[in-house]
Amino acid sequence: MSRSLAFVLNVPETPQDPEDSQEPSPYDESEVHDSFHQLIQEQSRWVAEEGLELQQRVLGAGALGASGSDRQALLGPEGAPVYSTATLRILASMPSRTIGRSRGAIISQYYSRTVRLRRRAGWPQLRDVGRSARPSLRLYDLELDPVVLEEEEKRGLLVKELQGLTVAQRDHMLRGMPLSLAEKRCLREESRPPRGKRRVRGRHGLLSCCSRLRDSCILASHNLGLALLSGLQALMPWHYALKRIGGQFGSSVLSYFLFLKTLLAFNTLLLLPLLAFIVAVQAAFPPAPSGSTPAFRGLELLTGGGCFTHTVMYYGYYSNVTLNQPCASPLDGGQCTPAAGGLPYNMPLAYLFTVGVAFFITCITLVYSMSRSFGESYRVGSTSGVHAVTVFCSWDYKVTQKWASRLQHDNIRTQLKELLAEGQLWQRPRRACGRLQQGAVLGLVWLLCLGTTLVCALAVYTFSELVIQQSRVSAERDWALLALPLVVCLLNLGAPYLFRVLAVLERHDSPVLEVYVAICRNLILKVVILGILCYHWLGRRVGTLKDQCWEDFVGQELYRLMVMDFIFTLLDTLLGELVWRLISEKRSQRKGKPEFDIAGNVLELIYGQTLTWLGVLFSPLLPAMQIIKLLFLFYVKKTSLMANCQAPRRPWKASHMSTVFISLLCFPSFLGAAVFLCYAIWQVKPSSICGPFRTLDTMYEAGKGRDLPQHPGGEGPAESHLPPQGAAKQRGGRQNLLNQQASAYL
Length: 746
Prior knowledge:
Elements: H1 26-49, E1 74-75, E2 81-82, H2 85-92, H3 101-121, H4 146-163, H5 167-176, H6 181-191, H7 209-235, H8 239-249, H9 251-284, H10 300-303, E3 322-323, E4 345-346, H11 347-377, H12 386-393, H13 402-424, H14 432-469, H15 483-503, H16 511-544, H17 550-588, H18 598-614, H19 622-644, H20 657-682, H21 724-735, H22 737-742
Antiparallel strand pairs: 1-2, 3-4
GO cellular component, one term: plasma membrane
Main location: membrane
Membrane topology: Multi-pass membrane protein
């Protein structure tokens, strides 16, 4: 027992070929594994030869049994009971001892890879390392599991081999190991050589300046890439807020905020070409002012008129001439020759073409989003084994912070609730009598909802006709312009509440079906009201505003509808949900909060987006107003959701909800707006005193290539091509335009 035991790992070297590029053969790798597995057996045999195996202690008073018995005791270093080699071998095959063997196999596998790398790089073999640096089984307790001992030996040899690799090879090897981050971190720390004993491959044994510079550049580029990646993730709008909403309220409520984010992207895509090819160009070549501009009084923020009328916000401000660079000396007759190299800009053609291209891009994006959403929602075989996948494959092991792990924990828990609730929906059969009763209730509720929609439509039509009849009375009260938008917003706000009260009588088993029915009823209401308004604008208002700029009137009407809709949405969110929460808490005698109305809020978004598409032709900056509205709406809805609402009492998975929202946005919202604009372009005669199409019979004629007069460098008025009497008449009409529009309702 006085001699010291040491490991001797016999790894046969592969003879180097002349080109020094041949990979080690599988036979050499198997020899490495064979010699590696023989270590423990040889050490056990040497220990047995030296008589280190002791007798087993008898339970009780500590008396020893017969010396020839198989139940023999071993005395450990501290007197702890241990077992013989055969018993340890049996215990090692138990399930509780074989859990960590995969880890040992992984370490053994990557040890073999490090051996190949060391052979390829020409580093010294493990046998060249001194015996004092090699591990020994005599340092371990005999009561340990042989599998654990074997794993520790493999780990030690792997660390030695990793120390011989370069930094790049070591990092690449550690990244590829299927181990936990903590295990990889420990291996990296253990394989890192001391500062004073780092081996280098320089000519004089010192790290050269080029190597230091190269390593510094690689490290700096790696850190810069990680910083840019984290910065791009932080630039994603509302990334953490959406995760928090999904984890706390489920995918059904999250679908509303994702839809709002999608609308924000659509409006940004729609606004960019309008700004680049219409607004910016006209702002660079402004027409001559026609009369004095009204002073700002604050009411223009609600009405959209006043000083906003003579700006790039509305159709009437844009000129109907070909824009050119300024010239030094105009010719006779006030005409201006374009400068050398100047490119004329046909403003009517650019106006029509830009609006058409913007709508075409939006259509392509909508179709692509809808097809992608269909592919994700209705994927074949996506529901097979979804419970097991959610349980075992949902956790992200890269999460290290406490708040992130808590958020992911809540998200997985909500997903499991939704999956279990979705599986239980079809396990509640109804009797025939119950089905008949439910059918009768559904029919009655639908009749009441359709009757309410019809009453709202008649109210909007009657009020719009009353406004047309009173348009001959002259008055200068701007607040009268808000009458029709106010009535429309009141009906849009009150009717959905009545629908929600009637929906309580239906008692749908599926919350998904309940949301779909509510969306259908609200959609019918919005479509009918918008249809009546479109008829009011193009069918009635064009005839009554022949001598006025009816395009500006339609653009201001859409602006007022959008502003009033935003104000009523804020009031409903801040006051309605708060009052509903107080009533629920008082009625239930507990802290009960109302649920988030997904159907009503989604239809409000679709309604606002439809107003934006309808007004693009008459107000090019209306998408910018919609973007500002959506930004404010997200934070207001998020704050109200966290304070006044609770998660759905019946969890349900909104797997197809995004697809339904995109489909409703495409039809009837986008399709209806496209039909409205096409009718205005092809059939309605433009105003003769304003806008880029004032001299044409239809807007479509601008695409036929008619010759337009030259704009004298933005210095003359857009009406310079008219006769003097016609130009004076036109300037007088533009000067009194605001007063005429203000008196249209009275």
